[in-house]
Task: structure prediction
Amino acid sequence: MGEIGTGNPQAISALVQLLSNPDLDDDTRRRAAYSLGEIDPGNPQAISALVQLLSNPDLDDYTRRRAAYSLENVVGDNELTLVVTALKGNLNSFKKFDENLYNFFWHCAKKMTYPAFYQAWHNDNTMP
Result:
């Protein structure tokens, strides 16, 4: 799917719409998350959809791993602060430790300066 729709806004919109369907099976959700991570790095619509997906506490672990990996691929340096701020509350709000989300934050911390990560972590604003 990533090769077919590279940079294609219609493909991105279709994948985002697919991910928002609560009746979607786990396998299709994983594939859509993977494709979003391959189609258009830096795309705000893809980033927002993956953040929303990772904010779902009922998401199965394999899909969560795929979404976190895709978000690492698609998020650019300019979006790291917004994404960290948007997802930080999920690290402690879920019933069990989320290793995938923890690893994503570790990835962000390595790419950001300490002051930038600190500010993002302690910021109360969220993504639009």
Summary: The CA atoms of residues 21 and 47 lie 17 Å apart. The chain has a mean pLDDT of 88. The domain at 9-121 is CATH 1.25.10 (Leucine-rich Repeat Variant). The longest helix spans residues 26-39.
